[in-house]
Amino acid sequence: MTDRRYPTEPTEGFETPPVSFTDRTGRTITIRPYDGTDSAFETLVEMYEAFDPADRAQGIPPGQEPQIRSWLETILGNNCLNIIAWDGGTAAGHATLVPDGDAYELAIFVLQAYQEAGIGTHLIEALLGHGAANGIEKVWLTVERWNRPAVGLYKKVGFETSNAESFELEMAIRLAAEPVSDDSE
Predict the structure, then answer these.
(1) Residue 82 half-sphere exposure toward CB, CA atoms < 13 A
(2) CA geometry: angle at 76 spanning 36 and 150, to 5°?
(3) Would you report the helix, strand and coil content of the chain in percent, each value rounded to 5?
(4) What are the boundaries of each domain within the chain?
(5) CB under 8 Å to 115, separation ≥6 — which residues?
(6) What is the domain class of 19-174 according to CATH?
(7) What is the pLDDT of residue 181?
(8) Residues paired with residue 44 on neighbouring β-strands, in sequence order
(9) Between the CA of residue 91 and those of 37, 40, 113, 131, what are the distances in Å?
(10) Which end of the chain is more exposed for a tag (fewer CB within 10 A), N or C?
């Protein structure tokens, strides 16, 4: 296990989903937590089937439908947190927090037709807000060093470089986690 460094001070102020906004092209985008329905699952499968192979990193998302389905079954369960950016009934993007020891790894995917429209920023901020609201304090990610737009985005929302010793950068953020209540109604 990596001896990961996290910022001392938590980053606060992330909005929790649902979040709606108008992207830079005028589309109304709504970000909501994954609801576990078959229709949401199938829409994500369609999104990943349309995903540009050039945008795949570290082997994800997988490229073939059976592998996409298997991968989604894993990350949509197993105590992962997931949110989807919706353009009407179309999944424009998906972000997840995957448990990793005492922290969570972040992964984000935005379809090529929706990139550079501000959706990635809103998606990450909503995911971090959703994570903080669910008691998550430490989040990390890896990004290819040459991917300047992604590195800039992560820095903009508060991630700091925690390891730069390989061709990938490891970045981390500490969230102002809210205590998770166990209220039953």
Answers:
(1) 22
(2) 120
(3) 30, 30, 40
(4) 19-174
(5) none
(6) alpha beta
(7) 60
(8) none
(9) 14, 8, 11, 20
(10) C
